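Posted in: Structural Biology > Protein-Ligand Complexes

Title: Requesting predicted complex, acetoacetyl-coenzyme A in pocket

I'd be grateful if someone could produce the 3D structure tokens for the following input. Sequence and ligand are given below.
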Amino acid sequence: MITETSVKNEPLSFKLTQDQQDIQAMVREIAQKEFAPRAAEVDKNHRFPRENFDLLAASDLLGLVFPEKYGGVGMDHVSYAIVVEELAKACATTSVLYSAHVSLTASPVYQWGSEEQKQKFLTPMARGEKMGAFCLSEPNSGTDSAAARCTAILTGDKFILNGAKNWITNGVEADYYLVIAQTDPALKHKGLVALMVEKGSPGFTFGKLEDKLGIRGSSTCQTIFEDTPVPVENMLGKAGDGFKVAMSTLDGGRIGIASQAVGIAQGAWDHASRYAKEREAFGKTINQFQAIQFMLAEMATEIDVARLLTYNASVAQDHGLKFTKEAAMAKLYASEVAMRSTVKCVQIFGGYGYVTDYPAERYMRDAKITEIYEGTSEVQRIVIATNMLKGQ
Ligand code: CAA
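-- Reply #1 --
Done. Output follows.
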């Protein structure tokens, strides 16, 4: 149980509940036994690990944070952060396919959807019968989400979608796509709507799969809409809520990416410390050299801070508090820690860190995206500053 917490900058101390410890042990076992052994192959072949998604579904992890009435198990968001960390420690690709499904698609349906929409879209996603994807960025608007050009023109009882969305995680693999589109450019962010679009809708196609630096097993592509009809009843919230749906979704999503970054950094630490205990130089194992000890100590300290920030944001979310700033802080810090830690991991491995025989280089490649997606580190700084300076 959390013994002491606050979103007002008081210190925190955490002790995981029995349920949180149990879920951690369960996911760790699945991830280390099933996902870690195939992570290198998934990365090398750019192969979407559908069997991992299926196992997450069979283990009731896709509905982790949703009520039982929608096919979930009703756990808290600290548990969610724990799950994402354990997945990322084993296979970053699996952690992102999971967080894009849960945080970016199922969660906004839970938060913004009507009862009918929850029954229709959330329940099958929580059960793992359908996969979700979130479509916000466009070829010409990433950070400036309000500048979306994809249009949704209301015609009778349907919106007609036209435009393209970029960098869509779970790309061709998903079934449900949460699409943010513009009804009237003159209204800027107040003209945006959030629509649930089903795969197979007329005029809905995919661009090429992206060839990425890291998380290479995740499916990333452009989604293209040409006169795609979307029933009005598929709109989350009301007309004009699209920007708020997107931003509130990203608040939760950023906790997912922070957890992913913590997992990547922890995985790199685990591999580096294990290697340092085995590798010998000058007649002793390299973990006996202060140069290596200092790197491991710095990594461990930063990882602990990143994890605490991530739990802090999750607790705020569970308490129903506004957690925009906390999520941005966690994502900013954890993603930069992931980058620093994985670079140190490669350094500890030396030449072996630079080749694919060991996972060090993969962790470093996987870490980079955490500083970019769901808002770059620069966007997190903007969000933190604007939220802290508001009203001053
Ligand atoms: N929750 C709810 N509402 C929010 C909000 C939040 N967190 N943040 C802002 N809003 C509301 C504001 O209250 C305001 O409402 P009113 O108009 O009623 O006053 C409205 O939204 C506009 O707010 P801002 O003026 O602050 O908006 P802005 O245009 O200046 O945006 C920004 C600021 C921080 C740069 C924002 O655009 C942003 O976060 N951009 C980054 C987007 C991003 O993370 N993209 C990643 C895409 S997802 C992805 O990576 C793909 C994947 O699959 C993994």
